[in-house]
Design a protein that fits this description.
The complex is a heterotrimer. Chain B is an alpha/beta fold. Helix content of chain B is 34%, strand content 15%. Chain B starts with a strand and ends in a 9-residue tail after the last helix. Classes of the chains: A alpha/beta, B alpha/beta, C alpha+beta.
Amino acid sequence: MFINSPDALESIRQEAVKALSLREKSNSSISAEAAGLEKGTPHMQILCCGGTGCKASESAKIVENFHASLEAHGIADKVDVVVPGCFGFCEKGPIVKIVPDNTFYTSVRPSDVEEIVTSHIIAGVKVERLLYQDPGSGEHISDSKHMNFYRKQLRIALRNCGFINPEDIREYIARDGYKALADSLKRDSADVLADIKASGLRGRGGAGFPTGVKWDIARKFDAPDKYVVCNADEGDPGAFMDRSIMEGDPNSVLEAMMICGYCINAHHGLIYIRAEYPLAVHRLQVAIAQARECGLLGKNILGTCFDFDIEIRYGAGAFVCGEETALIHSMEGKRGEPTLKPPFPAEAGYFGRPTNVNNVETLANVPVILTKGPQWFASIGTEKSKGTKVFALAGKINNVGLIEVPMGTTLREIIYDIGGGVKNGKKFKAVQTGGPSGGCLTEKHLDIPIDYESLAAAGSMMGSGGMIVMDEDDCMVSVAKFFLEFTVGESCGKCTPCRIGNKRMLEILDRITDGRGTMEDLDTLENLAKVIKDTALCGLGQTSPNPVLSTLANFREEYEEHVRDHVCRAHKCKSLLTYSIDPVLCKGCSACARGCPAEAIVGEVRKPFVINPEKCIRCGMCISRCKFGAINVI
Amino acid sequence: MENMITLTIDNRAVSVPKGTTVLDAAASIGINIPALCHMDLKGTCVKNAPASCRICVVEIEGRRNLAPSCATMVTEGMIVRTNSARVVRARKTVAELILSDHPNDCLTCPKCNDCELQKLVTRFNIRRMTYKGEQSTRKKEETVAIVRNMDKCILCRRCETVCNQVQTVGVLGAVRRGFETTIAPTFDRMFKDTDCSYCGQCVAVCPTGALMERDNTDRLLDDLCNPDKIVIAQPAPAVRVALGEEFGMEPGTIVTGKLATSLRYLGFDHVFDTDFAADLTIMEEGAEILHRLKAFLGGDKSVKLPIMTSCCPAWVNFYEHNYPDLLEYPSSAKSPAQMFGAIAKTYWAQKMGIPREKLVVVSIMPCLAKKFECEREEFSVDGNPDVDYSISTRELARLIKRSNIDFKSLPDSDFDSPLGESSGAGAIFGATGGVMEAALRTVYEVYTGKTLPRLEFTDVRGLDGIKEATIDLAGFPLKVCVAHTLGNARILMDKLRAGELDYHVVEVMACPGGCIGGAGQPYHHGNVEVLKARARAIYREDEGKPIRKSHENPDIQKLYREFLGEPLGERSEKLLHTKYFNKAK
Amino acid sequence: MKVSCEALRKVEEICKKFNNDPGELITILHECQNSLGYIPEDVQRVIARCLGIPAQKVYGVVTFYSFFSMVPKGKYPVSVCLGTACYVRGGDKVLEEFKRVLGIEVGETTPDGKFSLDCLRCVGACGLAPVATIGEKVYGRLNPSDIKKIVSEFDS
């Protein structure tokens, strides 16, 4: 398969589209297909999620079992097993989807495979117990499009994730893949760039800089070598949007990099990816190899005089390398320390050459913007933030997973409609967006239509798209401390405010959660946070105080309780807890005393025991040993 | 005017050339923005602008965050505030943060009063330790030349820049990250286990007391007070044009006479001059140049050219570590200080009837690598070093102050005879190109038998990193090259290794500007004008000398007559020449 | 800890594969760590020599990135996810329990060389939070009380 012209691409597409026809059909009835199977007419397909989350739950074993079972039943030639990327509904993983009847099985275990094959594939009877059960109605839902989790989503960047086999470039081509590139190469690159500008696409990595403008700046700097860099160093703890895109649709990233290369007159592409993402690396390697093999990467792409090739570079565990200057230094084999901008990478980037850096999700939007037109894209979203945003929804929420919604969707819709509300019926307390650079938003922010500006105005930021829901059991001081611990651990150490300032803030938070804080500490914290924001060298440092500032703004009373009353209302801060034994409930069995590692519990058998608060280390061992619920924690 | 940018700083308009930093633009109208990590010895390759300390931040209209003025270039119409409440508060907080990770022991710190952080703390009116918390504890080390106490390090990265970009020694650099970041040698080893050349430029640029010289003043005081010791002094050429700065005198003030007097007042038994030994070096090295040149012109293909100077101890360390395959190129002549020691402890000691072990030779040097050089085994006889130890210009100043001597009001006096007389050629050793120029004065006259029409070889003067000149030696075009900083030396050595270095004589000095910019000199605090003023003083010193060529120094002539015989003769070889070792790690 | 000559030759080969290009330092370090399990001083020296850069630079890079280790990892490397999703679902408690059961701190290896303990940021299995990995295997929905049993599976 060598694709040396747009026509060749089109003919491959027409051929490849057939293989996808079963998935494109929407038919919830399976009897006809199952009957077809009986008569020997092919085809059903079993889609087993091959994302990292589902793989962690043995989805590879499930695939293996499907192959074995289909073989054993002699229908291996009639039923394909496909391993697409993430379906997004990680809470219910591993996901198995059967087409053409669009049956969406959740929480599938390897031992369920045989039943799916005999019942669903052969006998045409869905396995009800593996279907998604709506928590509200209790009803079993077979087709994912009827699930609340998917209903409010609009999948643009994730359009191919969970749909195509990411290790087969033909499936990408079948979904209009590389069409945007082919069309672009026929046009003046300035016109293509104008489309990107007109779409209103903004960087999805954090700050939201207009992508078209960024490209235009890089385009203006003339140099013999220019670079297109894909920032795939997704480092926010609890964010996995980019990973899912690379695992599920790697070719969309490659195509976008090539289009960018065409627009800014660059011929080298580099993908800087976390080494912690082995599967994404593998999928990218496969995609690059296939694209090279069929001539979509290399010299004279699609018969034009445009040359482009892509290499992969690996991160090595440094969050700061998500910052573009640090990323570039890391790619050059140096310590990932940011440098002052300007000069921006567009002027002097990789080895001093003009370099354009975009993140994965941003790039994944590019091909579809060009195939569907900038106006289409610009019609989605809010006035200043166009298109959609992918979020990694996690924390104390029922439907953990990867979601994509139009800009302007409210947090309430995301948390309650898509996310299914707070887990275990607990009370919603806060939602953290933007990772370590973002902030904690509360009930009062739930109805804000979210976009770059509104989140910033609320004291948080879009960030790369982590969204962590917290409930009444979360201590907001501890949450702020958690993020600051992360920043302190990931600070490169170059500039004073980040290196020492964040450390001092963390020490203050340590004191507060330890019951040693003072009211003055709160003011110091706020002053430090503001100065760090104002003076730190890079984006990491400048945004690192946000979790503290936003929790101080929204949950100041919790800080004050820790300081003034020595109380942590969420019972998270160990030092502020007091353990005692309810003398009425205590039967004097001595189990607690025998298990206490600090020997803090004394008493006579069959009489109530007591805890010596001086000795108690608040480890909670007594709670787990008491059969009578006699241990109180305040 | 083209390429001029007009901007407003603190409500005052200023026009500066494009490419100027806000910091420099402000300085041009007398607005002195405080800076800490920044250092720019303009006109040399010493420049550190990581924009990392964030002390020099200013407010620029239209920008969300404060900007570091040291690395922010001016733009047309820019409106800058350097002293708004926001800036002043932020700057103070940043300084307080630095202070919170710094030992609070200024009173006993060797850098006290010269510390740039201390000056900022005073200037910002910081009167208490606002932030308390964990302080970094890092490795400490005391070598013969450099003392490292990285607890005092503020991570300005100046030392890293000079060690890597300027000197290309590559010993010091950042390791680990975040609050754990340290500037350390490879694998957190000690300097002595590394390729450190002891050039000491890390010390010269360190704003705090993290990197300091090894202080020998107490040892010297003990010796000066010891009635059983005869203590003699030899100050280097570059000391006399810089020492005055320590006493508030203008950079470039020549204090040769006061220097001699102060040394006597301190109690030195005899006050001689390294300049004398510099003349001696020219005799030996000049003879070696002529020797190799004649062999070369005679068709000897094995002769090693270019011959390279070997006065600079850091440079010697550098090529022993990095170019062990090229050890035959440098001249075998010892440095002037070591020649002085060898002569003082033989010729002069015999003359005076002083037993070697009674004699203490102390060199006063602009240099820290000299401290290391004194310890070299090959420069001792039965464990007794030719030069017992070396103190830096700064240490001498400290000693003078401690000994209640009002330096500025001292009368002038001359150095003692016979190791105190020197020519102008010896004096210019202190500036880059000086050794070359001194050598050329002698080589030309000896080779051609003619008197030089003009003594000044201006092509080899000045702060350019690598300077070249071609001298007409009676029809033979002698090609010479002068490099200062080890980074420039590396360029030459790599060419030499590749067989592409087309010179006959090369001079190398490790420090920027030569010895006047040595690591033992009063701190220049990033002001290149200080170095320039010292260099000008060096050449003024030369011009003022009645004798300006080494071979015309009568005491040198006498020394050869009475004791040494002739340059490169048997006794000269034994006392004044050395060999080099492969010290590659 | 002495590195074998073959191992050092392997390091030279890796450097050569990347044309001894200093710009490829991080890729080279990755390959060396994959091949040897860690990057001790001797290996860093060889890399520095091959690439023609000071060993200090290699050391500076190795110590900057948390992925690189100068000590051998345990036979069963334990990594506890401390991503936010895992944190709010008790990842910190899981880590504490691993520390207690293994008797080592983060970044250390047990004296018998069996286990090493590290933190990582996000494996992307947030649906299974809190998560830890031992070698290639992912353990999800962990409770501190599970840890002892999990470790004992490897301890036999």
